[in-house]
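ping. complex inputs:
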Amino acid sequence: MTESPRLLEVRDLAVYFKTDEGIVRAVDGVSFDVDRGETLGIVGESGSGKSVTNLAMLGLVPQPPGWVERGAARFRGDDLLKMSERKLCGIRGRRVAMIFQDPMTSLNPFLTIADQMTEMTRLHLGHTRRQALSHAIGMLERVGIASPADRIADYPHQFSGGMRQRVMIAMALSCHPDLLIADEPTTALDVTIQAQILELLQEFQREQDTAIIMITHDLGVIANICHRVNVMYAGKIVEEADVASLFASPRHPYTLGLLSSIPRLDERGAERLTPISGQPPDLANLDNGCSFRARCRYAIERCANEIPELRMVSHGGQAACHVDVAEAAGQEKAHA
Amino acid sequence: MPDASTTPHAAPVESNGTSPLLDVRDLQVHFPVRSGWLGSNNAVVRAVDGVSFSVGAGETLGLVGESGCGKSTTARAILNLIPPTGGEVYFEGQQIAGLSEAAMRPYRQRLQMIFQDPYASLNPRMTVGRILSEPMRIFRLHDSRRRRLEVLRLLDIVGLNPRFVNRYPHEFSGGQRQRIGVARALAVNPRLIICDEPVSALDVSIQAQVINLLVDLQQQLGLAYLFIAHDLSVVRHISDRVAVMYLGNIVEIAEAQTLYRAPKHPYTQALLSAVPIPDPKVERQRKRIVLEGEVPSPTKVRIGCPFADRCPLADNDCRMSAPPLVGTDHRVACFKA
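pong. complex structure:
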């Protein structure tokens, strides 16, 4: 290879879990790329595999019951999935950092913020205790914690939810990672605090050219900060596009369904929402058809017999559907 | 505390001569908290600090605000699940705040509640049939045969298969459980249902199903809802009028479309601007009012406007006295509005 490798290249990743109901294919053949300075959104409902995809890359899927069935996740050319635990430790937290939904359970309640923040930079950047402490105080100041030199000796419970998430962000960014994986980082927070946190992430991204993978179920958050979007359903990416095209002309019935099922703040909207009917499928009992077809209003016979592959569509991205949704929706309108 | 102009237990009368279904007047819930060495500092959390609003028959009033603003406590105080420390609650013209459990019981039949967590609010040891017949049994509605038929009818109207009657809650998904919660509230023919974050635990694609169900039931049965939620888009969709709470107070209340189109209180404006809109084209052009800091502690003794610490418009007047909620249809508590 002559050109430099991409920041992150995930190819055909599959993660399975063994459960009482059988083998659950939580992630089943997922491929995507992330480049420097860009924000990739991953959207989908609970159980769609959006979190597991990212946990697997960092070797954080509990084994057993889970395992990586196949695939590769190349970070700057090196496959994270085949790396020794020791080498992975040098990347996790240093080059790839992660923040989670619930900052209370991801901070250790028995250690002060100082203990938790300095551990990272002493390990990864070789800071002395004193260097690490002043670096940590600087980071807390950057994320907007008032009088950080005093607050750093506090325990997590002494901070509010929004403040804890700021601490998590300060900690995650303290080694200047190339890639930040944010798993529902604002879901537990109020909207005014969410606005502050999203602003903060974008600021860091502009400054350090950090790539962000934003995992969320909130399409508003996606529209707000993402450049490209993967839509996941039942362990697969069903649509992939740049953010403007995805919202302007969704090409998978699930994406279309999601967009028309949410009420919007800026519109009075119709009397009734258009929900997606039915329930998500049981991942332990998937068949050889499209996993969305039972809930899909455009399903045809072929959908029961053949799993649709991702293919290029006219908006420049890809969708995994046998039906041309834009055309089908257009015809529906014409008939109405 | 009843003021001199109204006699206790008398229904407040609207200008058109009819009294609203629910009328909340100056409701207060203060909790004592002990802190310091052996509880030497006695502070008071003013969770709800003088809240007044009404809900008419067949109407939906949305109640929004961020966590800790007192919206859930307001709901619980109306139902006497948390005893109010002040104010009055009139339901169908009768004062019910602070009634004993026995005196409250007849009102509970017409004043029901749906909870946020469809996992915690259904008894895991009861079948769906039992969960739905229990409220009818408690209120001595119908004989046992009729109750069994009622259970099947309830399952049907909330969109669940009546064959599920002998299943247990764990056999259902979150959305289906929330339908069971709705059916349980309907079992005793209520006139008002207090919905506390009824869809926030559900996936986006399932939320719309439950919202549509609530809207349909309202139209069929003439129900009134007090709809409490932090999702402002959902509240706009479902509400006729909306009240915005901040730190135990209502800061603005208006007809829903008016409030969303032209919010007057600086907090409402900031709150609405903070909600991301699922449309990148719109999102790129929006101006966001990012508020500084966080909601102050409700134990803090305060004489001025509750929002003064974070308000971009606040001046000395705002810190010296609290603005009252004024106006007729569109009421707002702000000196600057």
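The first strand of chain B starts at residue 22 and ends at 35.
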